[in-house]
Design goal:
It is a single chain. This protein is of the alpha/beta class and 222 residues long. It has a single domain (10-47, 102-219), classed as Rossmann fold (3-Layer(aba) Sandwich). Helices cover 37% and strands 24% of the residues. The chain contains eight helices and seven strands. β4 (113-119), α5 (128-138) and β5 (139-150) form a beta-alpha-beta unit. It starts with 9 loop residues before the first helix and ends with a strand. Mean pLDDT is 93; it is low at 1-12.
């Protein structure tokens, strides 16, 4: 007999705890290594002035920001990740302010940022098109969107595995998609890509559905 639940079933509550409590901690550890740190430095190069970061997480980008950055406003939905960023925020050397929880609806005026940054974030935003439209809106004309993301691979065999694994990935990794075409999404938002490096991160071939990376910069046309 199927049991009827007046509230959400136990497995749903368990997945909620996993997503809210465990995933932010795992992400902090998994994406905090030196190899990813070098990519964070490259993604942050050229940032200046007032910067908006989408998906701030536990603040892993703060140690890679150039001196030309004068303030960082951030969007971060996870309370656990925000709490884990406290020590990094205290030692950042620039003011860091949390301005919202949802990248698709930014609490910021038009053309109010010199640059924006997203690292391993666009994969998880439910309405990624709306979030990138918001990035374009809040960037000053000529301002740059810097990104370091994983997504759709160029090899058909890897793509097939990305598509097979994507439903499970979303469930286990807080909505993370494996097969988003990041450059196409950025261009569709009206941002002009001026440079992008695409490659698999080092690791065994079996990891390739997760490790095809995009490192690039796009600008809002003047």
């Amino acid at each position: 007999m199927r049991r009827a639940y007046a509230v959400e079933p136990p497995y749903s509550r368990d997945m909620g705890l996993w997503t809210e409590q465990v995933v932010p901690r795992l992400t902090d550890v998994a994406l905090g290594n030196d190899q990813i740190g070098r990519l964070r430095t490259a993604a942050s190069a050229g940032l200046h002035g007032r910067v908006l970061e989408l998906g701030f997480g536990s603040g892993l980008n703060l140690g890679h920001l150039p001196r030309e950055v004068t303030a960082v406003d951030v969007v971060e939905p996870s309370e656990v990740a925000w709490a884990r960023s406290e020590a990094r925020r205290r030692s950042a050397g620039v003011p860091v302010q949390r301005i919202g929880l949802d990248g698709a609806r930014l609490e910021a005026a038009n053309a109010s940022y010199d640059a924006t940054l997203a690292t391993f974030t666009l994969c998880t935003i439910p309405d990624v098109a709306a979030a990138l439209a918001e990035v374009r809106r809040v960037l000053r004309p000529g301002g740059a969107f810097h990104f370091l993301e994983h997504g759709l691979a160029p090899d058909p065999g890897v793509v097939r595995w990305q598509q097979r694994l994507d439903p499970l990935q979303q469930r286990l990794a807080a909505g993370c998609h494996l097969d988003r075409d990041v450059p196409a999404l950025v261009r569709a938002a009206g941002l002009e890509i001026v440079e992008v490096r695409q490659e698999y991160l080092p690791g065994p071939r079996i990891s390739r559905p997760w490790t095809y990376a995009y490192l690039g910069r796009a600008v809002r046309p003047a």
